[in-house]
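quick one: magnesium ion bound model?
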Amino acid sequence: MSTHHTTTGTLNAGAVHALAQARHLLVDLDGTLVRQQEAIDGAARLLAHFHDRYAIVSNNSTHTAQGLSVRLRKLGLRVPPERIVLAGELAVRQLAQQHPQARVLLAASAALQRYARAQGCRLVSAEAEADIVLLALDMHFSHTRLSVIANALRRGARLMVTNADATHPGPHGRVVPETGALLAAVVAASGVQPWCVVGKPAPLLFEEGLRRLGAHAGRTVVVGDNPLTDGEGAARLGLACVLVGESPGAVAPTVAGLLVQPVSEAVEPAPQYRLSDSTSKVWRSVRTEVS
Ligand SMILES: [Mg+2]
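yep, here:
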């Protein structure tokens, strides 16, 4: 009977091996390193292991990298702001650089509003003035806000969205509604589909992470918890991906499980996976497990 490399133990060993071979790491934040107000088991050790060879790549659209760096330090994770790539900030920079004259109706946190002004975006609040609507995770989203956005879009403004995640994991198994949930309301009310979605699985964030690290895709591994954003985004760029958490393709419940040396490697000279397996093969095996 032939041996299939699909048991959890083998995948876990393969994932550990992929990380051991990785030169650089692009790591997701929510559900991978932190869950709301706490660091996830193993997060600090993983970042310490890759100390100057990782970047956090997150669909977060409420914080700035500066603000998030401070928040993470309180959770025991020391991450310099220049190694945090966020969908909200990146969307604002895209707008400021590629559409500097556009009048922007921005539905976002106060922090992202301040960041947009600092980047030179021309922010407007009236529906008749907007050329572009940028939708981020706006905690003060309301019926009034929805009405202004929907009518701006119906008048011809284009819809840019930081990320399309419906939720992210919160504490005690709860979910936190995300920008994608607000997007569903906007699309329902306006009949207008997004012109541009910046966050994963689109390639912009991973490309920016690679650029900041001076990293090569072939020696970079993505670690995340969501097959639809982290997994799909990595696959589109040919990056290896290791998933943790609750999803079907996950190799361990938390990143702590990625740091454990596989027993087979220590005691058996011929483990079921081959040590020469490339990280992309690891990813394919994970994909097989999902499908
Ligand atoms: Mg996540």
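The longest strand covers residues 54-58.
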